[in-house]
Structure formats: structure tokens, C-alpha cells
Write a structure and sequence with these properties.
about 45% helix, 8 strands, 6-stranded parallel β-sheet, two-stranded antiparallel sheet, alpha/beta, Rossmann fold
Amino acid sequence: MRLRAVLFDMDGTVFDSHLDWIELRRSMGLRPDGRAIMAQLEGASEAERARCLAILHAAERNGAERGEIVPGTLELLGALHDLGIACALVTNNSRASAETVLAKHPMPFDLVMTRDDGAMKPDPKALLLPLARLGVSPRDALAIGDAHLDALAAHEAGIAEILLVRLPEWMRALIPPDVAYRDAVDLIQAREIIESLISERPLQAC
């Protein structure tokens, strides 16, 4: 394929916040139903929404402060940049959370988009907007994430390739059969898959 951009999810893909998102939902009184937390709060009262957002922001802040970069992230980003492939971070986390992560763990992204910048996954606009800013067509892009929301957004956006890393089985069940994606156990294997997609020439380690 003619790969010009890779769209990376953050939490669980390139950064491990060590947050238990299912338990976090339970602390808010929310049942895991496949939707993003912000979507689950759309029908809540103003008071309930404020309470839950306070819990969410505190958890994201804690995760950003205490988490760690996923092994293989910097090597993959460096290799992609060496080939002139743009790399964007697209996360449903807050801008404050993403900035904290990147301040503590610098990663060379060409663009960073968060839920504060517009649409959230699984809305395809969450991926189409960064691609438009990069001047790249969806058919020349690859999306990499760790959740069904990443796959759904990429599929609806017409992204050429979807790569999911360490996808939990309960999330796999939420991906419709017509959504094609590739599995990887970690970013090391993800890099191998990307290599096979774009060239016979291996990506060079940075």
C-alpha cells in the first residue's frame, strides 16, 4: 500500500495508564456497554454528569502521571518518520491528559488530537479531521489502536488498514463481521505487519 500517515490511539496502544476502565465506569454507576464514557453521560443530569466527569478527570490525571510508554513505541515512530510517514496521536482522552503524557514521555507525533478538539471515536470524524490537517486521504492511512472504538471509527472513515493491538475478547465481540482488521500481540508485531504492508524493505530501527 501507499502509506502516508498512521493514526495512533493513546491509552493502551502507545501509553499504558494502568487504569481499569471497567472499574472506573462502575465507580460512576455506569455499565460497560461498548460506548465511550462521554457518550454514556450524554443523558445524565447536570449534577450526575459533573460528578462523573470529576471522577474521569481525576483518573486520567492520575494515569497520565503514573503511566508509562508502551515498549516499541519510539522505535515504531522513528522508523515511520524515517520513511516520511506522518504520525498522529488521536485519543478520546482529554487534551490535558495527552499533554501530561507527552511532557513526561516525549513522542514525535506530527499532530495530536483529543476529545477536546472535536469528535470522539467511534465517530469517523475523529480520524478524518486529523487526516485532513495532514493532507492525507483515508486510503493512504493506517489506524492503530487497542479497542473496538478504534476499529469502528477507522472503518467508517474508510481507513485503508486497521491494526488492533492486544484487543480484549469482550471488545472483539463488539466489532461487526464486515469490519476488517489485523491483530497484533504488541507493537513489535505491529511493526512487522506494517512492514509487510508497505514494502519489502524493513523499517530501520531509530
